[in-house]
Write a structure and sequence with these properties.
Layout (H helix, E strand, L loop, with lengths): L2 H30 L5 E5 L2 E8 L11 H25 L3 H27 L26 E6 L3 E4 L11 E4 L3 E2 L1 H16 L7
Antiparallel strand pairs: 1-2, 2-3, 3-6, 4-5
Helix pairs in contact: 1-3, 2-3, 3-4
Length: 201
Amino acid sequence: MTRKQAQALTSAALAVGIVCIDQVIKVVVKTGMYLHQSIHVTDWFQILFTENDGMAFGMEVLPKWFLTSFRIAAVVFLIWYIFRQIKRGISWGLLVCLTMITAGAAGNIFDCMFYGMIFNNPPAPMIAELVPWGTGYGQMMLGRVVDMFYFPLVEWNWPASLPYIGGEHFIFFSPIFNFADASISCGVIALIIFFNQKVFR
């Protein structure tokens, strides 16, 4: 097996592994917890089941159909770019980073594309169930992304004497995210730190 073949196989296996892990976690949470249910693991880590219509970490900026279309286009481009770089002699580290980003984006695409078609959306404390295709809570491309990892690392109340923020409760780090988001973030951070001058060569 040549180096290029080994890299292509490794990239594909890593991507499939990330997507599978992400989807298993999401399905287990969605079919085992009701919306907004929380499992206290430690004081700084909770499993908190939420869903969002937006981008990573629950942000909502653009219409859902646009976000889903953008994710699909981004994944197609990244797959093409990865194989182009493999042919040009990509390093193993850069390959892993790009694959993590691509696989993370693909993991969230599954939620957007299919979850509205295959899951119902009962009110709490009822738990969602798989339903016959097309009888779920939404249409194709309009499903909600499942998030569950919550790390309120530090919490405090601002002194009441401070203007504007006095008496407010502050949480660091408040975003709720999933395994796919973590894969994207780790890949991007590693790119910035180690490969920022090599990505678009």
